[in-house]
Each structure stands twice: as C-alpha cells, then as structure tokens.
Amino acid sequence: MNETILNVLKAMDKEAPATIDMIEKVEKEWNVLLPNEYKQLLLFSNGVEGPIGDMGYLSIWPIDEIVELNQEYAVDEFLPGIKYFGSDGADIAYGFEFDEDEILIIEIPFDSVRKSDAKKYSESFFDFLIGKDRNE
What is the residue range of 98's domain? Predict the structure, then answer.
C-alpha cells in the first residue's frame, strides 16, 4: 500500500491480515469481484477501526464477518446490488454498489431501505479512505 494510505491508517486499530482464501470465499458467495484496493487493505489488516481524517471515525469490518453483518442488516432484501463493508461507528453504513461495469463506494443511513438514499462517496476505495470525491 502507498505511504498516503499507511499514514491515514496510522491512528486506527488494525487486525492480523486476511488471507486470499477468506476474500475469495466472500467473492464466491456474493458472486462479485471486490475492488483491488479494498483487497489490498484486507491483506494488510483484516478490518480497521478508529479516527480518520475529516470523516471522524471509520470501521471497516473484517472480511470473515462481512457476509453475516450484511445478512443481519438485510442488505440484499432491501438494497440489491449494494454490499456494506463498514460504518462511521454510528448511523451511516459504507458500502459497494455493484453497477454493471463499475463499483461505487456509497454511504447510506443504516435505517434506510431505499436505494435512493445512497449517496456516492467515491469510485476509488483509496480515495474514500483519504476523503476524496465525497458526494461529487
């Protein structure tokens, strides 16, 4: 990972790295290819949590918990094409929106069941981490 991303993650709690097998298991179960930058983060730390830039707080869930958490929030039922990967530690979920040829990083209130409430955050996972492209 590049130096900018490592600096962003410096103050956050990190976990042991995920494995390729753990990531591929989720990709197979969801029938998607997760963004490469996201996979790089997971291979560095299987989830991170803590203060981050202007966003305030970020929790990126461990890959081995992500399927169950999406089931608990009934994401597939109410928001097809979206998969949550974390939160702001409060009432906002962050997710991937799988839309034909692109994957967008979105934010959406946890209590929403309407895809129209999802706001584009970024097209790049690393840009999301450093706070670029928010809601353009």
Answer: 3-130
